[in-house]
Amino acid sequence: MPIKILPDEVASQIAAGEVVERASSVVKELLENAIDASATRISVRVLDAGKRLIEVADDGKGINRSELELAVTRHATSKLTSADDLFHIRTLGFRGEALASMGSVSRMIMTSHNSQDSSGSKIVVEGGKIASIETTGVPIGTVVSVNDLFFNTPARLKFLKSDQTERHQIETLVTRYALAYPDLAMQLEMDGKQTFRSTGNGDRREILAQLFGVEIGRGLLEVVFEDEGVKISGYISPISVTRSNRKEITFFVNGRWIQDIGLATALVRAYQTYLMVGRYPISLLNIELEPEEVDVNVHPAKAEVRFKQPDVLFSMVQRAVKRALLAYSPVPQMSPAQWQSNTSSQQSEPAWINARLNWEAEKQADTNKTSLNSQAETNTTEQSTDRSDQAHIPLLRLVGQIGATYLVAEGPDGLYLIDQHAAHERILFEKMSHHTQAIPSQALLHPEVVQFSPQATRIISESLEILNQHGFVVDEFGLNTFRISAIPTIFSNGNAQAALRCIVEDFEEDESPLQGMLAEKLIARICKRMAVKGGQTLSAQEQSALLSDLEKCNSPRTCPHGRPTMIHLSVDLLERQFGRRGARSM
Length: 586
Description:
Elements: H1 8-19, H2 23-36, E1 41-47, E2 53-58, H3 68-71, H4 98-104, E3 107-113, E4 120-126, E5 129-136, E6 141-147, H5 154-158, H6 163-180, E7 185-190, E8 193-197, H7 204-212, H8 214-219, E9 221-227, E10 230-236, E11 249-253, E12 256-258, H9 261-270, E13 283-288, E14 294-295, E15 306-307, H10 310-328, H11 359-371, H12 374-386, E16 397-402, E17 406-411, E18 414-419, H13 420-433, E19 441-451, H14 454-469, E20 473-476, E21 481-488, H15 496-501, H16 518-530, H17 540-551, E22 566-570, H18 571-577
Parallel strand pairs: 1-7, 11-13
Antiparallel strand pairs: 1-2, 2-6, 3-4, 3-6, 4-5, 7-8, 9-10, 10-13, 11-12, 14-15, 16-17, 17-18, 18-22, 19-21, 20-21
Helix pairs in contact: 1-4, 2-6, 6-7, 9-10, 13-16, 13-17
């Protein structure tokens, strides 16, 4: 085929594909333009996950009427005059491609008013062609409305993710820039509902509390580091707050949000030996260095950069994070009980040493007790018939608790070690799930108010119906805020806020057994959070009650997430281990 020059329309759409990948790309470019224009207030409005409308309004300097047409022309910018300026960039934008790229794949309307003009101006661009320019009355600043994104490139629409994913990307972008520029008042409105607002008072903690909750926001560790002209500041999570992926690791370089594997690796290594494998911290770090030390002209989206001395910078990140961790880490405290000796001859023997081991007598006693109530016996028989042989467990006799984590019980076929946390999870899950009547609720003396991030708010809103069907009374109570008025009676001694937060927090357990079952997954998460924990000492009555409740479960051998609740050591295995049935096979 002969070589030919592409039409301007095709060339523009190809170039736009590098800059405008999705709706969040449009929001990013417009946000950065507003910040470069010295705006103090920025408002973002989105409809239909950005496909129908993305509107960003600011109170910045605005654009002169004489330059309005030039502003939507490719490679037109006020931030560069020569190639040498590429290595001294102090602004977020510089390529002069963003507005032209947006206009080529949408119906874009831009109104702007510069203080030097007596009135504002409006320009309309459709598919890369200027449709009209006119004078209009608008306040000082700029408003860019991107309508019908990818209307002329429908193939691009097919590659967009789900609306929920696209909204999440936009929310993440806006909230991260709000953290990077706390002196800017920013707000985000999605489909007519305000999902985020920052006051612009310069307090990052206030924004962190909106995104991660008051408790986590207050507990994040501040990083302040400066060496050899490099300044690193921001916040990192303590070792008690982790995530299962790196999505909450955020870096800004000279105010620009970037993605850099090297920096993320340096930060994670600073946590080495502190965190379990597969767990990652939350972080927001801003790195300030001379523009000559970083090349931002790597990718059209400006999300990747190259450092002149990467090894030195990575080392500084590690040192800054390590220093903050050591400065804020508390000194471990030992409980006096841990120092008590058990070797004293004066100490009496534990009660279980003399426990009766006659299982037949124990089983006969249980049979006599059960026969006193024929109806209870019938119900028990029906439950046993419904269970498979694999799920069924025999009646067990409690022996005691080990390590404040495991229960020891004796059965007719050997020894059972029971994980009290996993067992209690199963018990709570079946009480919540297998109900034929309304689950009784316990009203809170003082209703609790919980605040979430914009992303988490959407998940909670979608879960309200399920929560209210299972004994919770939760309603919306302002921007990204919910009020808990009652919780199920089986959780009456639990933390109501923790029960709600666990729905949206990072989850470390494998949830594949509950895939496709939204209500069950939600209830399983709550039960995991509200169940007794490993390391929690239980009284003899509590141990017996837990064991009795587990025996009544339909699936007592696993927790809702598939983890085993017990380990069975048969009599045969015990005899082999003790050499009572010949040598143990190797």
